[in-house]
Amino acid sequence: MQLIRLDDLPATPWKNGGGVTRELYIYPTESSFETFVWRVSIAELARSGGFSSFAGVDRVITLLAGAGMQLVAADGAAVPLLPWQPHRFRGEEQIFARLDGATCHDFNLMLRRGAAAGDVMVWHGDQHLPEGCALLYCVHGGWEVVSDQGQQAMLAARQALVCGNIDDMAVPLALRSLHADSVLISIHINLQQESRHAAQPS
Fold first, then answer.
1. CATH code, 55
2. Which of 112, 147, 178 represents a domain boundary (last residue)?
């Protein structure tokens, strides 16, 4: 299990100046925007603006902090993004993010369509996670993570844990909340067989 501290990651400014992004994890680890299978990042939105287009990518966005935002589609339909409620959309959609107030922070999962499927789950208390957990991110509080193989890790706020490689993501994990207000996000990935083979070292 690999521990990642958000505050140690570089913040990449957006071309439109509307925010910055910190990439938590990309799979395969040496891939680019054009070749990744799945990618997790956290964005800080300073003002309203349009999302970049990612053709062939499915996206799941979860609001972490801020007054909230509206995701406005090209036809004018608006979806309110509420704290800790994942919202799924296609990367090629024309989406305008309209902030309801001050700066917002959101958690983003990107999945290459046809190569990987995945879900974002939000937890507030002790849990035994479903199989396929690839990454954990502590939003608030603290967590103890234990695998059935005896591996143990502690997660504090703004820390992520990569749970394993593509061969052992099915290892069951138990979560124990260390504080009453703890909130944790888990990412669950299902790779297509071709993606597994392509990522194996030669």
1. 2.60.120.10
2. 112
